[in-house]
Amino acid sequence: MTGETPRREAAEQLALTLVGAGMQRMAARTIAAFLFTEQESLTAGDLADELGVSAGSVSGAVKMVAQMGLIERIYVAGSRREHFRMRDNAWTTLYSRQHSVVDDVLNAVQKGVEAVEPGLAHERLTYMRDFYAFLLNEAPMLVERFEQQRRGGSRP
Fold this sequence. Notes:
Blueprint: H1 4-20, H2 25-36, H3 44-51, H4 55-67, E1 71-74, E2 83-86, H5 90-115, H6 120-152
């Protein structure tokens, strides 16, 4: 297939970048496979073939990527195999799930602010709390602006 090597190289480069950002290698390669495929859905077998690994080795990665909210299981008529596809709003879904993690961090930092006396630790914790509170307040508006921009057809 023409262009297959550049496509595979770009997918592997994206996966390596995600690994560098802290993601597990097989999960990163799985995300890249979903992003770069022209197929509507993929099975574990499809992923194994694409990535050159055993079907068993992708099962944990599929589960992790599904838990992240990036892919979802779908029904495919006539198939007995599980099919997965990239969610339409995968990145805003992922961001929304990370929002709850930020909320947990904010709550823990607030307890820290309350637990220390005025001083350097209090200043650092207060700064962190204020930063995360700002992010939580601004995030929904950013997502909405992004969605409006996408609907309007303009690109960032």
